[in-house]
User: Fold this.
Amino acid sequence: MRYLVNGTLIRSENAAKPHTQKSKPVEDYLLCRGKAHSILDFGCGKLRYSDTLTKIATSVTFVDSQIQLSRKQIIRDEQTSVTEFVSKNYPHCKTVPFEKLQEHQEQYNLITCTNVLSAIPCSETLSNVILNIKKLLSRDGVAVFINQHRSSYFKKFESGKKHLNGYIYKNQKSTTYYGIFNKTNTQELLLDNGFEIIKSWCVGESTFVEARSPQSDI
Assistant:
């Protein structure tokens, strides 16, 4: 996604990490969940966890901005696009642009949202993301929101300008936003947008929050 914040362009697609930089706590969590019929990976980036997700699900839908899905980039040592790579390598899987998510009607047993909230420098978009995820959950579905609450490189960002839950940091090449989401502010955001918290915990530098639609809504 691209955001214009106080006249400054922030390209969040540049923050996407490759599969070689998977987080072990995240991968362990996904593998321990066991099989799922359908998973939606919200903010799939460069398909960082796609091999893990396709192992545990019958079908996976990968969601990101149109530009992230369609642009040519290096995906698993191949010059391609996310959409092309998914079509070629993952049967029964597909990509859906965030810009068209309002039209998407499928529902999912598990929705993953990994290091996505921290890259969004806009309150309206944060709420829009949460509401879209809530809409796409099946009746017994679970959404998991995973963010880093601590990292040695946060010190670099803290030299930038304070904004929302984090900082806008400029260097010679680009401008980056990084929000810090711990258990408290992640849960507050989810509750404010109609979710019910199942549980939350931390592993190392990562915060995990599982949420669902309120049982009274089911």
Observations:
- The mean pLDDT is 91.
- The chain is about 25% helix and 35% strand.
- The first strand starts at residue 2 and ends at 5.
